[in-house]
Amino acid sequence: MLYIHMLGYELDFGHMEAINLVCSPKYSEKSVGYLACTLLLHEEHELLALLINSMRNDVLSKNENFQTLALACICNIGSKEFSEALAPDIMKILTPGTASRTTKHVVRKRACLCLLRLYRKVPEIISNPEWADRMFALLDEKNMGVLTSAMGLFLGIVARNTEAMEDAVPKIVRILTKYVVQKEYPTEYTYYQLPSPWLQVKLLRALQYFPPPEDRQVREGLHKVLQIILNGTELQKNVNKNNAVHAVFFEAIRLVIHLGKSSSLLSLACNLL
Questions:
Q1: Which pTM does this prediction carry?
Q2: pLDDT surpassing 70 at residue 135
Q3: Is the dihedral of CA 189, 89, 103, 30 positive or negative?
């Protein structure tokens, strides 16, 4: 069936068989069922309602393989029905507490990305004042992979509404200081000797949604980070490294421009441009 679908033919059979495979306790059958549902069912398909209970059970199960399969399928289909029915269950994976601490990093990464997909479909599933504390807890995450996914979710939220999220600014500056100034980061997340440029870009971009920090210590920490980025960027022979370095560099310049006259680095950024 999947091969026929990949060849471009329309399939109007086998959907119930795929849904039945999702309900199977065997990983081999469940994975095929989820793959078939992801490819064959669209977000307005009439059979999606039959998947919700099975997906909820898998999302809340203790089996990380089942959790990741369900999250991937929910994220790919991303229907309004899924958003309203399953978002609270996905939030439980990210809520601070015992369950969240014992959840594997790979599951929490997918949960962040899945929740972002559902939030873009139905923004009402997340209320900023209620979600702020959970978001701040995610920004304290020590695993760089989870933190990168969490920053993607954070950007999606503040791009629409920054209400109650202002307290994230000191946390973001502290993360940047740790990676850029103190050079404290796991080696597996370096890309051409640069600590996770994707995360750095997201952190710098997130700060652009908020006014310049009023706290002197936070402001000085941010100034030091930006100064190191601007002064330490040089043209590289390696194209991939050059792209990564300049992605962070240009995002830093955008932040300096956003800070405006409150930043003493504005003239340096203009000269570098």
A1: 0.88
A2: yes
A3: negative
